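Mods, move this if it's the wrong board.
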Amino acid sequence: MGSAFWEAECARLSSGGGTSNPPMDVTRYKCEAPKLAFLIDSKTGKAKAESALTADERLQAIRAWTEAVLNAQTQLSHQTERLINLELLKKFGGSSWKSHNEHLNALQQSMDNAVLASKKSIEAVNRKRKTDQIAAAPTLHGLEVAWYQLVQKNNEIEIACSLLDADIKRLKTAAANRFGTPHHTPYLVLCCVIHSLISYFCGVMCSGLIKPTNGASAPTATASAAAKK
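Not the wrong board. C-alpha cells:
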C-alpha cells in the first residue's frame, strides 16, 4: 500500500487538478522560540527582568532555549542533507535510472527466453506423444481384433457344446424309454460314453477348425440358428 501523500497526488491528477503542485508544507520546519509563561509579568504583560526571576525559572529558561537551538540546528542539518541529495540526484540520477532500465530490460529478455524454451519443450512433448500414439495404434487395433475373434470363437464353442449336451440328453431319454432304467442297461451306458467322447472331439475340432472373422456379429447369428434347431 502506498503513502497517503502518493494516493492524494494520484487522486488529484486523475480528477484534472492540473500540473501545478500544491504549496510546500513548511510548518514542520519552523523553529519557534520557547513559550515560557513565567517570563511574562501577569500585571503588565511584559517580560520580566532577569533580576526578577528565581533560580529555578532561570534554569528552566536555559533548558528551553537550549532545546530550541538544538531543534533549529537539526532542522538546518536536515535541509542541508536534502539539498545535497537533490544535487547528487541531479548529477547522477540519469545514469542510475538508465542502469536500472537496462537491468529491467535484461530481466525481461531472460523471462522471454525462459517462456520460449518452455513452449518449445511443451511442443516437443506433444509431438512425441502424438508419434507414440500413432505408432501404437496398429498394435492396439490388432489386439482389439484378436479379442473380438477370441470372444466369437468362445461363443461358437459354447453353442456347439450346448447343442451336443441337448443331443446327449435326447439320446439318454430315448434310450431310457426304449430299454428301461438307464443305470440298469449296459447298452445305455455304452451310448453315453460314446456320445461323451464325440462331444469332446467335436469341441476340439471346433476350437481348431473354426476360422476367426473380423466382425463380432457371427456368434449372434449362430446362436439364432441354434435356437431355431
